From TrEMBL:
It comes from the Bacteria. Signal peptide: none annotated. GO terms for biological process: heme oxidation. SUPFAM superfamilies: Heme oxygenase-like. This is Biliverdin-producing heme oxygenase. InterPro entries: Haem_Oase-like, Haem_Oase-like_multi-hlx. The lineage of its organism: Bacteria, Pseudomonadati, Pseudomonadota, Betaproteobacteria, Burkholderiales. It holds the Pfam family Heme_oxygenase. GO terms for molecular function: heme oxygenase (decyclizing) activity.
Length: 196
């Protein structure tokens, strides 16, 4: 008699699959906003990025998030976004804190969106350099790689997601958190790209 053993689906694989439509929507919003077409358009993107990163780094204060992702101190792009806004001569935007009521396990979904965008920002960073002359020292800090490199830090995050400490019963809530984070970033991009 052969007994089939069903493996637990990895959380990172489910997140990628079940948020794919949201990911594609972000690509479409970026194409629409054309952030590298002018310094003004790029400044609007950085304003949206700053507010989203503020939402993300609020979650870093949560002890349960700290336990689940032990290297939070190397993550996040709030300070980089703030420095870029200053480089660009832009005012620091004000808005509600969208993650004020977010807790574990949903918080991991929010971090997934932020960390995924950091990984995927390599192309955007090159565009900021080529089209606008910005760099990791001026204007495009928020798109630059982490000191250890994008892939290394991303792999550690995926390992934290796929850790056995995160049970199957939490997966749906984490995916819901990722969708909420995508909704928030999409709302910010729509708002700031609509200010042209």
């Amino acid at each position: 008699m052969i007994t089939a053993t069903l493996e637990r689906p990895q959380l990172s694989a489910r997140l990628k699959l079940e948020t794919n439509a949201q990911h594609e929507r972000m690509h479409q919003l970026m194409e629409y906003g054309a952030p590298f077409s002018s310094p003004e358009a790029y400044t609007r993107f950085v304003a949206a990025q700053y507010l989203f990163q503020r939402d993300i780094e609020h979650l870093f204060k949560n002890a349960a998030v700290q336990k689940a992702v032990s290297d939070l101190h190397v993550r996040g792009r709030l300070e980089a976004s703030l420095a870029d806004l200053k480089d660009l001569g832009a005012e620091v935007p004000q808005d509600r804190l969208a993650s004020a009521d977010v807790a574990m396990p949903e918080a991991l979904g929010w971090l997934y969106v932020s960390e995924g965008s950091t990984l995927g920002a390599a192309f955007l960073f090159k565009e900021a350099q080529a089209s606008l002359g910005f760099s990791a020292a001026f204007g495009a800090r928020n798109l630059a790689a982490y000191p250890e490199g994008r892939a290394t830090v991303w792999r550690r995050f995926v390992a934290a997601l796929d850790n056995d400490a995160i049970g199957n019963e939490q997966h749906d809530a984490i995916i819901a958190g990722a969708n909420a984070a995508y909704d928030r970033f999409g709302e910010l991009l729509t708002r700031y790209f609509g200010q042209a």
